[in-house]
Amino acid sequence: MKYIIAIIQPDRLDSVLDRLEKKDIHLVTVTPVLGHGRQKGISTIYRSVKEAGSLLKKLKLEIAVNETFVEPAIEAITEGAHTGNIGDGKIFVLSLESVTRIRTGETGASAIG
What is the pTM assigned to this prediction? Predict the structure, then answer.
């Protein structure tokens, strides 16, 4: 089992979710987050003074999948989030030690579904 965390641009969410759905990946948690990477935020002009914005609005997707869905999930996120511009995002894949479905008490791969 793996835990996938993806940081993407907010305007790419629908595209990513559509592609995940086509690959039968339905269990996704989406959270609005702030951060910056290499682009180091954006600059704005307020009352004729240039102010550097240090944090940008992003979305964090969290997806728990069984091993067979790892590559399809990465492909779907990459295809859906890609614009070719700085700030497209990152995908992190972590090992998932344990999962328990609260409603049924199922554990492990069957709890992910």
Answer: 0.86
As a whole number of angstroms, the distance between CA 87 and CA 84 comes to 9
Q: How far apart are CA 78 and CA 96, in angstroms?
A: 21
DSSP label of 84: S
End-to-end CA distance of the chain: 11
Q: Which residues of 85-111 are buried (b: 16+ CB within 10 A; e: fewer)?
A: eebebebebeebeebeeeeeeeeeeeb
Domains of the chain with CATH codes: 2-112 (3.30.70.120)
Over residues 9-45, the pLDDT tens digits come to 999 999 999 999 999 999 999 999 988 777 665 555 5
pLDDT for the residue 55? 79
